[in-house]
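It is worth pausing here to work through a concrete case rather than discussing structure prediction in the abstract. The textbook approach is simple: state the sequence, then state the predicted structure, then interpret. We follow exactly that order.
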Amino acid sequence: MKRLSLPIVRLAAATLAVSGTTWGQPAPATPEPAPAAPGAPAPTAPTPTAPTDSSLEGYAPPGPPASEADDADAAPPAPDETVVDPAAAEDPPPAPPLGPPVASEQGPKPVLAAESRQPSRRVHLGFYAGVSHRSSESDRVTYDPSFAFGPSAGVELWRWLRAEAYARFESFPVQLRAGAFDTGEYNYPETTFAQPALDATGLGFRLLPTWMVLDRLGVQASFDVMWTRFTATAPSSSGATVVRSAERAGVGLNYKLGLGVVAEPIPDWLELAATGSYGIFTGQTGSAFEVLQAFDQTGHIVHLAPLPRFQNSLELLFTVALIL
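Step two, the predicted structure:
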């Protein structure tokens, strides 16, 4: 034991001596690294690599792809629609404009503005009356003005044009001059004749163009053709010769042009019109315009001159019509 410890003590003393000598000297200076050459990149210190765990190779955490995750991080978060803004609730956004007025596509159904109403009634039933005058081709027999009247019925072809049919009844007096029925072969110098009024009936058709100057007042023209027939009762005679004759008759066509005014005191229900017209006669035939055979008081055959034909006509008529 004493032999072992002596070498250990000596070794420890030598170690202490060497250590004291080293600690007493100053520490050598740390050499500075040499400056790097200009333009050369500084050497990069090697990064210690950590050991990798091959057990996680190919594993991707759950969630969106990295590109979508980056976009989601960059975009601001969407507002939560379940949160109601008090200001927005009190002041709602303006409603979108209405679409076309199609009732099947809108609810509730839109109320359209009232349009100007066009009358659906087109039939006119009227009654007219007025004064009619027919002039004569001869001065020996003249025709006085007469009272004419009759019904009418019309249909509006357009709002400005109406077609109308009518009937005419009138009786116009006849004025005879001296020698009115003298024929040249048979003269009645001391005989006075009297011709009763001529009874005339007619059927006519006319077109009535109308221009409404105001809502209820307009100007109306008339293009008219009328077939007329009249009968002449046998004339009476007194004086030197008493003549007995027969009834005569005649027919003719009367073409007329007229102009007047028309009014609707009750719109689409009642019409009033006043029309004046001028016409001419054509196609006048019949026994009234031929020499008439008669008998005198002795039974001898005598002849009476014909009635003169009508030359033209003048009329002023007033009409009241219902619009149906």
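Step three, interpretation. The chain is about 10% helix and 45% strand. The helical segments are 2-24, 66-74, 86-90.
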